[in-house]
Amino acid sequence: MKFKKTLFAGIAAIVGASTLLGSNIASAQKDWPTKPIALVVPFAAGGPTDTIARLIAVPMGQALGQTVVVENTAGAGGTIASTKVARAAPDGYTIYIHHMGMATAQALYDKLPYDPMNSFEYIGQVADVPMVLLGKKDLPANNFKELEAYIKANGSKVTMANAGPGAVSQLCGLLFQSRMGVRLTNIPYKGTGPALTDLLGGQVDLLCDQTTQTIPYIKDGRVKAFGTTTMKRLPAIPNVPTLNEQGLKGFEVKVWHGVYAPKGTPQPILDKINAALKKALSSPDVVKRLQDANIDIAPMAKVSAKGLKDHLESEINVWGPVIRKANIPD
């Protein structure tokens, strides 16, 4: 009898402790955040992803009532930062912004210490940076039809620059070659800066690059623009047709960005972060500054867990076969 009383008392104590713990967790979630939040960026300061992160960090912090601190963790194509976030405490104080590299990592690296689809909670898409297929100024072709004929006539003699293995410029170029059914001579650089410099100097023939840094050169005629990688023409360069309308049906490459959290982050906290992200992307100042940089804000329907998850899965299916077929690095 004494044993039963002791057992029941022990059970009661455990139940009581569990109830108290549950109450404390619920209270913590309700009061969240009570300290600054780290927004991890997988690249060095100054790049497009870092720029977007810093634009949304301030209004997100204002919406949450705490400072959102941008934390740059560069290296290994974003996999160092991704691993760091995947292993972080799921308490909402570490969140993550990454671009389409989240979708290409599995095909680029043999063994990842995280699973892009299952090691994170999804918060929402953020913004897309369009790209343009560019040619050097003195390339004989003046439009896409002429470029197609020039490539078919010259094959591997045509050179295509990129920013190195796994870079978006490389992936865009490889997808272009795959859709065209050709194999060009791919020349890797240590970044799009030097690749663009050599294109401007006429040392390489082609480059697929982001609009954030190429539109001024297109407008002043220092490079030829053969097509945008979007479904619709870009307002900043309305006279440049899309590759889709010129025959490469469905050709779309955007440097898209999404916000994530460690797996297991409580839903009430995720909901608060999502609401803050939506508020930031609706801020007139953020909208203007992103538009000025030729960056497209994601539709609000995609600034959601489902929108980001569905898009990531779709992009993995697009880029996996392209990367494996190309046998990157190249």
From TrEMBL:
<dbReference type="InterPro" id="IPR042100">
    <property type="entry name" value="Bug_dom1"/>
</dbReference>
<dbReference type="InterPro" id="IPR005064">
    <property type="entry name" value="BUG"/>
</dbReference>
<protein>
    <recommendedName>
        <fullName>Tripartite-type tricarboxylate transporter, receptor component TctC</fullName>
    </recommendedName>
</protein>
<dbReference type="Pfam" id="PF03401">
    <property type="entry name" value="TctC"/>
</dbReference>
<comment type="similarity">
    <text>Belongs to the UPF0065 (bug) family.</text>
</comment>
<keyword id="KW-0732">Signal</keyword>
<feature type="signal peptide">
    <location>
        <begin position="1"/>
        <end position="28"/>
    </location>
</feature>
